[in-house]
Each structure stands twice: as structure tokens, then as C-alpha cells.
Amino acid sequence: MTRLTCPAPRAAIATTLFTALVTSLALVSGVHAGMAETFAYVGNADSNNISVFKLAENGEMTPVQTAAFTGVEKPGASTPLAITPDHRVLIAGVRSQPFVAVSFAIDPKTGQLSHIGNGPLADSMANIATDHTGKVLFSASYGGNKVALNPLAANGVVGEPKQVIPTGLNAHAFLPSPDNRFVFATNLGSDQVLRFAFDSATGSLTPGDAPAVKTPEKSGPRHFVFHPNGKFVYLIHELNGDVAAFSYEAKSGAWSEIQRTTALPAGFNGKPWAADIHVTPDGRFLYASERTTNTLTAYKVDAASGKLTTIGSVPTEKQPRGFNIDPTGRYLAAVGELSDGMTVYAIDQTSGALSKLKSYATGKKPNWVEFLTLP
């Protein structure tokens, strides 16, 4: 009996397998066409510029640009950043006179920044943020005890302030609710969070009759973040290191405290100086920074109750005023105002624990990080 051989089909199978292997390797290495790429933008107060980094799949950062503030000479106290919802424009707040917001176009392919123009701010603003339509810019002045609303032109340049509203002492953050119907302002020196109704159609704010939240005396409410499900809010207090969890009622904009824990590491003995707070995009983990101890504290978030379980603290850059989490929730980048550097951590996807990967040089006095995935 004669055995038949089929070289052609075998060759075809080998070719198919080889093609599949090459395709798989390309996917793993991230070199296939059209892959989304992630960039980190670091605001450097004393350098008056933004350090742009490209984030690799493995957490490695590559410097790609240093974008200077056109028309700005003196450094300010910090450099708050905001990215418009359409990912086309990055805005930087300058806290030296004349107080301006510097707008940059974001190249959708390279992530690099090109200066568009500058617009006036009402004061030295510690925090800036757009509404969810990208039509207005909210800002808060710590020294001026006020919040403001500026319209944004179609090209992303900030217009003259439309509303400037006095607050209690030391307004520090001014951010919209997930549905864009309310905007909340922390008053660090008056231990309160104010609620404003926001009409996105007219681009106008209406102050509430009473604070949304009164916090403990001399606690210093500073920054806050909404949980991705919109049901909870987390607030960090600068002066006592507290992290408070609140349930959030979207219809009325009411906050109801459900838990209070701390950003201070175990055995802390000193004066608290807590700074920033962020949640992973999937809502499973929360992180807070503390400047006296130069640490980041991690928490696990209970999806049903919104309550926090402390995971632990890790050392980080010196004076970690700002940090952020990449859109995949796999990496955290923290910057140090006194170390002029940024450290990247891997986020354990099971436990939420942070593992240090690598540190990078930035500009002088970095204080703010924004991540963006393009396209």
C-alpha cells in the first residue's frame, strides 16, 4: 500500500502558524498598527513647564517633550492641570501674576503639546477642572477664598471669568458631579464643602443655601474624588490626615458620611499634611498621599457599601503633593515637589498593593499628574 504525502497542506499550516505567532508577538510588544498609547503630563511649578512622558505596556516611562509656558515669566506656587473631555486640549493654571490659564493642543498621534493661547484667571487658582461638556473651566483660589467659572472657546482657550463667587476660607478643589448638575468646592480653612447647582446649557452656577458637608473643626478638607459608579465620594483632609467616605445622592447632591479613616501610616507622630486622593477606574482601590511622611496609602473599596479597608502605606517622592492613576488602573505615578522626580508603581490587580517600578527626573517642583490614552 502506497502512503500518500501532502506537502502543500503542511506548508500552508506552517505558514498559518508562523503568521499567528508573529501577530501574537506584535500584540504583546505593542507594535501593531493603531494601538492606543498612554501619556503622562506633569506640571512643574518652578520650571513653568510640563514634562510629557509616554507610558509603555510594562509601566516604563519615556520622556518625549518638555512644553514651556509661553508668555509666563515667574513661577507660581503650583501648576494645576486639566484635560478637556474630548482629549484635544490640556490646560495649565499659572499661579503667578498675571494669573492665566495656558492652553495646549494635544497631538492625537504623539501626545505632544502645542501652545494655543493664554486666557485670564480670576486669581491664583490652586485647582482647575472642566465641566463634563468641556464648555467651561472651574477654578478654586486658596488665597483668594473664591471659586470662578470661565467659558472655554471652541479651540480650548480660556475666556474672561463669567462668574467669581466668594467662599469660606481657602477654597482648594472645585469639581463637577458625575452628571454635571452640581459643582462642589472644598473650603480647607472653614472646614466645609460647598454645593453649587450648575446649568450646563447657560454655563452658570447657583450657590446652595447651606454647605453640602461640614467637616470636623481644623480637619482641612482638601481634595475629593467620586467613585466611578457615582454613588460614593471620598474626601481627604489636609490638617488631620482623615479620609472620609460619603454616600452620594445624585438627585439632591447630598453627601452622607459613612466612614472615616486615615491617610497617616501606622505609628505616625507629627503634624499631618495630607494632599491628594484618587480612585482606580474600576473603583476597586483608592489611594491617598501624605507629605509629612512622604507616603502613599492604599485602600480596598467595598463595591456595595463604599467603605474602605486599609491595605498599607509605601514610601514615595519627597513632598508628594500630586499623583494619578493610568486609565487601565495598572499603574500609579507620584511626583515630589522637593525631589523634582516621579516614581511609577505597579498596582496589584488582586490586592491593590503598590510595588515600586522606577523613578524619573521631572522639571522643578512637580505637583500635578494627568494621564491620557490616545486616540
Poorly predicted runs of 5 or more residues: 1-9, 11-33
Percent strand equals over 45%
Mean pLDDT: 93
Radius of gyration: 23 Å
Oligomer: single chain
**Portion in helices:** under 10%
Tell me the major beta sheet. Answer: 5 strands, antiparallel
Helix tally equals 1
Structural class: mainly beta
First-last Cα distance: 62 Å
Helix-strand topology string:
HEEEEEEEEEEEEEEEEEEEEEEEEEEEEE
| Shape category | globular
Strand tally, please?
A: 29
Give an overview in words.
- The chain is mainly β and 375 residues long.
- 6% of the residues lie in helices and 49% in strands.
- It is built from one helix and 29 strands.
- Strands 12, 13, 14, 15 and 16 form a five-stranded antiparallel beta sheet that branches. A four-stranded antiparallel beta sheet has the order 3-2-1-29, with no helix packed on it.
- A hairpin with a 5-residue loop joins strand 21 and strand 22.
